[in-house]
Design a protein that fits this description.
By secondary structure, this protein is an alpha/beta fold. The chain is built from 3 helices and 8 strands; from the N terminus they run βββββαβαβαβ.
Length: 118
């Protein structure tokens, strides 16, 4: 089997995570964070719709990592984003991080909002 190395160019890929942190493009982010191909920084959690809504017309889908396991997100959060044309996909944070990286490598218009794992 032939393996092909994935390259992300200048895009911000998730390199790892652990209890309470995510490592993105060589930097450690603590707590909840929002990662896009061009930036990575803190996210205020489900009460913070302004940060992901600032991505309207720049992304098609926001993956939401709900921590160590999949959990529902508040309907108001989902409705605010979907109402502006951003698809919302819910999954556990480790799965959301991996899915983001795969689609980032394909050049897709994606971002990920992650709650930390325990």
């Amino acid at each position: 089997m032939r393996l092909t190395e994935v390259t992300y160019g200048s895009a911000k890929a998730i390199e790892g995570y652990g209890p309470g942190f995510f490592r993105v493009a060589g930097h450690v982010l603590r707590g909840a964070c929002l990662i896009t191909p061009w930036d990575a920084g803190p996210w205020g959690g489900y009460d913070d719709t302004a940060t992901p809504l600032s991505l309207v017309d720049r992304i098609d889908v926001l993956f939401v990592g709900t921590g160590s396991s999949i959990a529902p997100v508040p309907q108001a959060f989902r409705a605010a984003l979907e109402g502006q044309g951003i698809g919302v996909e819910i999954m556990a944070s480790p799965t959301a991080a991996r899915t983001y990286n795969v689609l980032l490598g394909e050049g897709r218009r994606v971002a990920v909002a992650l709650l930390p794992v325990g």
